[in-house]
Amino acid sequence: MVLPYSWVRMFKGEEPYPLDREDMNPQQQAEFLMLPGNMDGLYLGACLDSCRWGSMTSVMYKMNPQDMIAFIQSWMQQNKGIFERRFHEEDIDRMYNYFYLPHINHKVCPRDKSHRGMARDLGGRLRCTHKSKSRFRPSFIESYNTFDDHAQMRRIDFHERKPIDPMLEDVFDEDTGELLECYDEEREKYFRKQERYDEEEKSLVVTDACLAIISDIGKILSLETILRRLNIGDEIRTVYCNGIGGECDRVDELSESDKQSYGLVAHCPGHTDPTNELVFPFDGWTLAFYVQKWWNQLDGRMPPLFENSGDVEE
Questions:
Q1: Most exposed of 4, 51, 62, 119 (fewest Cβ within 10 Å)?
Q2: Are 39 and 80 in contact (CB under 8 A)?
Q3: Which of 2-11, 113-122, 142-151, 294-303 has the lowest mean pLDDT?
Q4: Are 110 and 214 within 8 A, CB to CB?
C-alpha cells in the first residue's frame, strides 16, 4: 500500500500544500478554483486534494464524471503550455513500481466462467461470443433497455410478464365495506389472462450473445471511462416519494408498466436519480497520476475525454 502523498509530505517535514479554502466547503472550493487564474501554476494533485470530502485514503467529490472533466479541463486551460509538467510534484516511477490505467483484463468470461468463445470487436476489445437461447410465451414477452456492466453497453433484454393479481388494498367501499365493482372487473381480467398464460406454449425463441468484455488492454481509454471505472461509489440511487409505500409525486416519469402497477397498489415504485458523486479509495494526488496516465496514452495528442466519442484531437 502506498501512503497518501499528503502523508509523505508531512513525514518529510513539509508544510501542507498552501491552498487557502477561505472558509469554503469542498464544493465551493472547486467552484472557486475553476474561476480564471485560480489554478494558474498549481499542481493538479494539490487542486484535486483541496476540494474533496473524506479522509486522505478515501475521498469523495461532489461531482459527476462530466463535472470532474470540466474541472480538469479548467486546470489544463489555466496552465496551458506547461500543464504536462504540473500533474504532480513527483514522478510516477518514483512513487510506484507500476501504475496502470483501469483496463479490463480477465482470463475467462467475467459473467460466467463456463462460457466459451471470444472475438475482438471493431474497437479492439476482446469479447465473449457465447450464445444462449431462451423460450418465451409470445403474448407475454416484454423488452426493456438496460446497461450491461459486463459488456459496457446498453442492450435490450427480454422477460415474460406474468398476469398480476390485483391487490386487495384500497378496493373496499369505506361505508359498506363491500368490494368495489371495479375490483371485480379487474379480478375477472386477471383470471382470463392467467388462463391464457397457463395454456400458451413458449414458442418464441430468443438468441442472446453474451458480449461481456474479457479484455480491453491496448485500447485508448477516455477520461470519462477511467473516472467511472475508478469510482467505488454509486452513480445512481433509488429514491421513493414519501418513503417506501408512500404515494408517488412523479407519476409522469414512470414507465407504462410501472404506471399500471401504481394504478393497482398506489405505492411509489422508486425512481433512479443521479448521485452526482465520485468516490475513490485514494487521495487527490493519486487521481492526478491517473489523469497524467490518461494524457500520456497518445504521446502529446489529446486522448478522448468522453465515452463513445471516438474523437482523438490533434
A1: 119
A2: no
A3: 2-11
A4: yes
- CA R_g for the chain: 26
Q: Tell me the C-alpha distance between 74 and 270, whole Å.
A: 36
23 vs 107, which has greater pLDDT? 107
Q: For 99-116, write each residue's pLDDT tens digit.
A: 999 999 999 999 999 999
Helix H, strand E, coil C: the string for the chain is CCCCHHHHHHHCCCCCCCCCCCCCCHHHHHHHHCCCCCCCCCCHHHHHHCCCEECCCCEEECCCHHHHHHHHHHHHHHCCCCHHHCCCCCCHHHHCCCCCCCCCECCCCCCCCCCCCEEECCCCCEEECCEEEEEECHHHEEEEEEEECCCCEEEEEEEECCCCCCCCCCCECCCCCCECHHHHHHHHHHHHHHHHHHHCCCCEEEEEECCCEEECCCCCCCHHHHHHHHCCCCCEEEECCCCCCCCCCCHHHCCHHHHHHHHHHCCCCCEEEECCCEEECCCHHHHHHHHHHHHHHHCCCECCCCCCCCCCEC
Average the pLDDT over 296-312 and give the result. 80
Give the position of cell 418464441. Answer: 204
Give Cβ neighbours of residue 287 (< 8 Å, ≥ 6 apart). 45, 48, 230, 280
- Phi, psi dihedral angles at 61 (to 5 degrees): -110, 135
Residue with cell 459488456: 151
- In the block, which residue shows the cell 392467467? 194
- Tell how far CA 177 is from the center of its chain: 48
User: What global pTM score does this model have?
Assistant: 0.78
Torsion-angle region of 175 (φ positive above 0: left; ψ -120 to 50: alpha; else: beta): alpha
